[in-house]
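Lecture 7 notes. Example A: sequence first, then its structure tokens.
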Amino acid sequence: MIEVIYILWLRQLKHYWRSKARLIGSLGQPLLFMVAFGFGFGPMYTRASGGANYMDFLAPGIVAMSILFTAIFSGLEVIWDRQFGFLKETLVAPISRTEIMLGKTFGGATIAIIQGLVVLCLTYLLGFRISSLSSLALGMTFMFLIAIFFTGLGLAIASMMKDMQGFQLIMNFLIMPIFFLSGALFPLENLPSAIYFISRIDPLTYGVDGMRGALAGMSVFGIHNDFAIMFILSVLVCIIGAFLFSRVEA
């Protein structure tokens, strides 16, 4: 089982490494958000918060955004594999579909974490600093949970679809509300009650809050609560994804 998962994981990493344009192109949006929001809204945030640095607040949210986009669109590989016949060859192999699902999930999550780490390094150029190695280790734990959850979600949705354009439309419909309502760009305090309720049921909210608490010491809900919620959701989405993938027809 471990060997199968490893091979599928390695296949996705090789695809990622061979596509240098994918790595470089995926940095454009995070950089735009960091520069535009960091320098545009930074002074207003500093005045409103009594002198706090907006980049310390913003950087974990942008890292989470990078992981979110990379992870959830990993489901595209399932549709590509179906269209080019590789998925059929994989499904008829003497391996379980759960192993296939786990291999693809870990592969997509690893790529998303790499993207997140690259963006995290870029935040240093804009003034963000991590206090200690233990904070970085805890932050990477939340990066892993965010990557696993949204990779599993993307694969689960892709397993039910055969149309690539339809998958992209659905993902765009989901991604933007998930990102903007997660508190990645602005504090959740003092929001209208309806918006605050939606933010509380957004899974990314707890990933961003946990990462912000680990890297910048600014957790709202508590790091332990964030970890418990993200861990449970990640396990659930993998179980659901494995069930849906077991019903895939190439």
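Example B, a different protein, same format:
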Amino acid sequence: MAKITLDNLAHSYLPNPKGEDDFALKELNHDWADGEAYALLGSSGCGKSTLLNIISGLLHPSQGRILFDGVDVTQASTADRNIAQVFQFPVVYDTMTVRDNLAFPLKNRGASPHYIADRVQQIAKMIGMEAELGNRARGLTADAKQKISLGRGMVREDVNALLFDEPLTVIDPHMKWELRTQLKSLHHEFGHTMIYVTHDQTEALTFADKVVVMYDGRVVQIGTPEELFDKPQHTFVGYFIGSPGMNVIPASVAGSDAVVHGAAVKLGQSFGPLDGKVEIGVRPEFVTLTDGEGVPVKVRRVEDVGRHKIIRADLFGNEINIVAGEGQSISPDMNRVTFDPKRVNVYVNDWLKEGEAAQ
């Protein structure tokens, strides 16, 4: 287990990068605590796998350093970093049995036969493959092979970090839930430092202590699921976390009021003059459709998803989503929305702006 430090880290796949836009991974300076579980979350191409491969030693950064517990490992090989990595697609030895595949990392390091047998049995139970231990891997499904890859990554207890690069892509949905639960249990039991790359917010939010949200090669926020939901530091975080994501609406802001196409929206904070692109962000859960006061909208459709209704509406050319209770009635004359002032965030050039307590 190790504290992982990213020191002035950046990477470009071009031989002579000219500017920031040439970097797939923009400059990062972060400390990731020993023994915590992190999820790297973001859309395809945002730099998640690039960062993971730099941490693992599969890729050498264009600039900066990687430190494990304060020791510079930037030039160290993957083996010398003492990490275990599980990839998106299964990597197994087809001619070996499931048992031998799981035991391989331990045999390679000279563990005792008794310890190997006990540990393999424990991991096989965790991944639901006790009955297949004597079978060769060649005849197994891709789903089963990926479970072997996961098991082989988890079989060692002495690693500095466990790295997972979208490991559940080929796993069926029910087994995904089980394996995420088991990975979380493993983390609580053994306290490994874990880093889990995914584009699936459900995987990230249910697995990690802290979610690292990446956008355009940057880490735009590191936080708990609650922090990402309540206070997105960047509009991308608000959009990417939540279903539906946060509503982002162009506005002007003066004091404790925002103005959207002439309609006033109360804010929970007070702001001075703001320069740049100004927007307000509010989660659909904190928007109320009414037939009284508020900002005018035009309801496009209502989607009943069982636990609640999602109302899709148009607000002066901007799509807005509203979450209403399953039992709430929606009538044709409901054509305005109000926002919970304490839940309205203000963004300048996509970044959260903090104000002062409203008087």
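Note on Example B: The CA atoms of residues 1 and 256 lie 47 Å apart. The longest strand covers residues 252-260.
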